[in-house]
Amino acid sequence: MNRTLYTLLFHLGLPLVAIRLWLRARKAPAYAKRVGERFALNLPAMQPGGIWVHAVSVGESIAAAPMIRALLKRYPQLPITVTCMTPTGSERIQALFADEPRIQHCYLPYDLPWAAARFLDRMQPTLAVIMETELWPNHIHQCAKRGIPVALANARLSARSAKGYARFAKLTRPMLQEMSLIAVQTEAEAERFRQLGARPECVQVTGSIKFDLTIDPQLLINARALREQWQALERPVWIAASTHEGEDAIVLAAHRQLLTRHSNALLILVPRHPERFSSVFELCQSQGFDTVRRSTGELVNAQTQVLLGDTMGELLFLYALADSAFVGGSLVPNGGHNLLEPAALAKPVLSGPHLFNFLEIAALLRGAGALEEVDDAQGLAIAIQRLFELPQDAQRMAQAGLKVMQANQGALQRLLDGLEGLLARSVI
Q1: What is the per-residue pLDDT across 79-129, written as a single tens digit (0 to 9) for each?
Q2: Which strand (E) or helix (H) includes residue 27?
Q3: Would you report the helix, strand and coil content of the chain in percent, each value rounded to 5?
Q4: pLDDT attached to residue 182
Q5: What pTM was computed for the model?
Q6: Do 135 and 283 lie in a common domain?
Q7: Could you give the number of structural domains in the chain?
Q8: Distance from CA of residue 179 to its chain's centroid?
Q9: If DSSP states are collapsed to H, E and C, what string results for 260-277?
Q10: Which letter, b or e, does each residue of 14-49 get, where b requires 16 or more Cβ atoms within 10 Å of its Cβ?
C-alpha cells in the first residue's frame, strides 16, 4: 500500500472515524468538542512560525515537557505549538504550560493531505518534532514539501511494531526517508528504523529522555506534610497508578488480602483514563472499601482504605505520597506505563508481566534489582506485604532505581543538540 491508496482508504473510512468519535464521546464528552480542529477548521488564533511539537496523549505530553521547557529557554523568540489527539492529552498540556504564553495548543488534524496542508500553512513551523512513534505519512510528506525538517524524538520501535511497518513498505519507507532526524532510545531500535528504510545518517541513538526527569524537592516536602495531616506518617501506604480496565479489581483483591495482615494499609488507586474515575469509585464502594475521592478535597482519616486519585496532573505527587508503587497497564496486555516516575522518587517499583512498551527500561530496572514483576492479585499482595515488613528491601530497591536513573541521564541534552542542528538550517 502506498500513500495514495492509504489516503483513499482514510477518506473512505471517515464515517467510521465519526462513529468512533461519537462512541468515545458517550464515555468522555470532551471528544464531542473541538471536532473542527481535527480537520484543521476553527483553529484557535495562534502566532505562526516557531516549533511544532506533537505528543499524542498524556504519557507523551509528560515525556515532552522537559524538552519543551528547554526549547523555550534556548529559543526565547520562538512560539511553540503543541498538538495532541486526546482530550486528556489536551488537558495535560494546558495544565503543564498554563503560565507560559508562548505555548500554543490545538488538536492535530487527521492525516488527510488537505487537512495537514491547511494546518501547516496556518502554523508555518520551522521545525516539527514528533514524540516517540506517532508517524503520519501525509503530515510528514506535507512538511517535506514545504522544507520543514521533521524529527522523531525519544523514538521507540518494538520488534512487533517493526514487522507491522514492514508489511507496508511502500508507505513507510518513503515516509521515513523524508524525516530529518530519528532520535531513538536504543541501538536495537535504531537498526529497526534503518531496516525499514530510514536514512542511516538521520538515525541517532540518544537514549530515553524519560531518564532526565527531575523532581522538585518541594514535591516531597508537600507529600510529607499531607501525610502528616492525615496522621499517616507511620501508616503503610502503596499506590497502584495508571490502571486500566480489568486491573482495578485485581488491585483491590490484593489490597483486601493486605488488609488481613496490615489493617491500617492505605491504597492510592489512580485509573489511567478520567472517564473511568466514577466507575472505579463505584467499584471500590461496591466491594465495601471506605473510599475517598481526591477531587473532593476530603482528608484521608484512619478509616479510609482507598484514596481514589481522580485528579489530573498530580500523578508524581500521588507517587510521592506512597511508600511503594505498582505501575499499571501491565497486568493486562496494554504494554505498561512509565516505570521511571516512581523510580525517580525513590520508590520500589512493581509491575505486571506485560511491559512490551518498555522492554529496555524494564530490563535495566530488573537487572539492577529495582523492579519486581507480579502475575496476579496474590503475587501483588505478597510483594507489597514484603516491602511493608522488610523496609531494608524497599530501601535497596529504591536506591537501585535511583542509580539506574542517574546512570542513563543525558538523552535530553543529546536530543536538544540534534534539534539545534536542524533549526540552524532555518532562519531563526
Answers
A1: 999 999 999 899 989 988 988 999 999 999 999 999 999 999 999 999 999
A2: helix 14-27
A3: 50, 15, 35
A4: 97
A5: 0.84
A6: no
A7: 2
A8: 23
A9: HHCCCCEEEEEECCHHHH
A10: eeeeeeeeeebeeeeeebeebeebbbbeebeeeeeb
Residue 421, CA distances (Å) to 176, 183, 214 in order = 19, 13, 25
| Residue for grid cell 481522580 | 310
Q: What is the dihedral of CA 360, 361, 367, 370, to 10 degrees?
A: -170
Question: Whose grid coordinates read 505520597?
Answer: 321
pLDDT in tens, 124-165: 999 999 998 889 999 999 999 999 999 999 998 988 899 999
Name the catalytic one among 37, 60, 132, 178. Answer: 60
Residues with Cβ within 8 Å of 413's Cβ and at least 6 positions away in sequence, in order, are 212
Distance in angstroms (rounded) separating the CA atoms of residues 14 and 82: 25
Which three three-digit cell numbers place residue 89? 492529552
Burial 363-387, CB ≥16 within 10 A → b, else e: ebbbebbbbbbbeebebbbebbbeb
Cα–Cα distance for residue pair 273/356, rounded to 1 Å: 20
What residue numbers bound the domain in which 378 lies?
218-407
User: What is the C-alpha separation between 297 and 276, in angstroms, rounded?
Assistant: 19
Q: CA 279 to CA 199: how far, in whole Å?
A: 47
Separation between Cα atoms, residue 313 and residue 233, nearest integer Å = 24
Residue 210 grid coordinates: 524519560
Q: Other CB atoms closer than 10 Å to residue 284's CB: what's the count?
A: 23
**What is the DSSP code string of 272-293?**
SSGGGHHHHHHHHHHTT--EEE
Which string of b and e fits 226-246 if b means at least 16 CB within 10 Å? ebeebebeebbbbbbbbbbee
> Residue 112 corresponds to which cell in the numbers above?
488527510
Pair 224, 190 in one domain: no
**Does residue 146 sit in the same domain as residue 292?**
no
The reply to whether 134 and 260 lie within a common domain is no
pLDDT at 427: 53
* Known catalytic residue at 60: yes
Residue 57's pLDDT band, with cuts at 50, 70 and 90, is confident
